[in-house]
Amino acid sequence: MGTRGTTMHGVVGGLVASLLLLVAAPAMAESPAEQISSFRLKHGEVRVVRDATLDRIAMDQARAMAAKDDLSHDALGPFNRRVAPAGAGRAAENIAYGYDNFEKTLGQWIDSSGHRKNLLLHNASRVGIASAKNASGKRTYWAMVIAGDYEPKGKKKNKDKEPLVAVKRETAPASKPKSSGCHVKLLSLCI
């Protein structure tokens, strides 16, 4: 075989080897939203997609925790105030620090009952995920905000359609009331 044949044989062999490596290489790692969705689907909940508003809320929280080097849901203020721009009826937040990658952080949340409950928030459809390093660069803080769909502006909730009724029940039997002249007591009115 001549030089040209040997070179051609080497090129073909290199191409075959490259193709084999591509086929055998593991698939690209799933995105954080895909990892969360996979977990949710295994537990009967729907898939979530990344949401820019929730990503910003999560990033603000992660940066605030990193700046203070403090793992706290209140690092930037109360959650209900911070999540208000998301326009969601239901939302939850998970925070963590310590792992440099999301897969390990997600595993930590799955192993914690409260965090797991947030990951499985019923009817959630959107998620925001962010991380930030503290000043030394040695600690990574994570924040995840998961929420339902945006609620239409100006739409009143069903709670306005029917009156709210509260019933107070006594735990101990009431003692016999003194004679007060009431024949019937209805809604704290004496008749």
Automatic annotation (TrEMBL):
Pfam family, one: CAP
Basic and acidic residues biased stretches: 159-171
Keywords: Signal
Entries under Gene3D superfamilies matching the protein: CAP
Domain SCP, first and last residues per copy: 36-144
Record SUPFAM superfamilies: PR-1-like (SSF55797)
Leader peptide range in chain numbering: 1-29
Name of this protein: CAP domain-containing protein
